[in-house]
């Protein structure tokens, strides 16, 4: 007697290994060959882009090494301005100075006399917006400070605009200052100037940070007058 206790195997019409009668092939098998190649290529492209992005961000935040020095220009071209990181791989990079950023505006009157406003403490305005707010906005907390930090770093100590990125950061900082000043100066103005007072933050006496530079005396920096158009207001 034949043993029929085993599972029944569906018969194939042509003896092949394809799906049995009444069974639909998988979704992938239903796709045409060109579509399969296009999907495979798109997936491979996304995975490659993700791997390259993670590798470049890793080299950017990692301590300086031979690879990051050799490909510094390529890394910067990928990171800036959209993927900039403000932290380090093994520990945060806390501020060692405090900047008090103020602005004043100037307007040329009809008689040709230039009228200059008083200094507006933009940092104090941001601090007032953050104080006693349970959920302060990122704009009030970091926008002006980060814009100045990025511009100062790109500008360096020679006070020359040496790259397209520096020009972009200058315009970004100017636009923020113009928008903040426009809410305080209720009339059009032709130019704006920034004053930055930098006060060092002293190291804690209990556990000093060895890699932080020693505190120096507060410094005052006046930026040149930047022209403002009606489109900026």
TrEMBL record:
Transmembrane spans:
37-62
Give a yes or no for keyword Membrane in this entry. yes
Give the record's keywords alphabetically: Membrane, Transmembrane, Transmembrane helix
Q: Where is this region: Disordered?
A: 1-26
- Name of the protein this chain belongs to: Integral membrane protein
